[in-house]
Amino acid sequence: MKKYTALSLSRYLAQLSSDKPVPGGGSVSAYVACLGIGLAEMVTAIGIRKLSEESKSDVHRTLRLLQKAKKDALQVVNIDPKVYQAVMNSYKKAKKISDQGKKNRLIDEALENSFRLQADLALLVTMVKRAAESLGGVFRGSITNDLGISLKLLEAAFHGAYDTARINAVYMKDPQRKARAEQALEELQRRFKTSDASRS
Question: Which domains does the chain have, with CATH numbers?
């Protein structure tokens, strides 16, 4: 599997800007999530120095969560193009199958794998955003500007992952599979809006 995370940013952008379909929106959404998380980590690493010892334990927990989430999101940068290719391959294989039911199942399974990857990313971003928002009540000064940028990047990453998950659900043929995906999308929206509401 090609490691897009091993590329320099300029090389990644060059491949992104080409006429090839990968990397695409799913990989980019994960990359943006990593940028948002990394910025929140920076804010935490700088801000924690000014805290009292008793205040540091909660922030250390948040920092560990950010570090793990960034690692998970980085994997999606690499995995999404592979999953997308599997969807495209399923359409090619389906052309050689005469049984319509088998065709639909083959394609739906690939679509569901792609859906799950991006739905899981959207959920991860939602949890990270809540953790990053909690830092706003801890840190003061100009560093909070970087935290604000981090939150905006995480919001963009959520919408990118959500929309990529949704488009996979749109093309599913099986009504039950499609209904499960749509229910999961509704739950993701609810969780994300709850995060926004708790912030205001």
Answer: 24-199 (1.20.120.680)
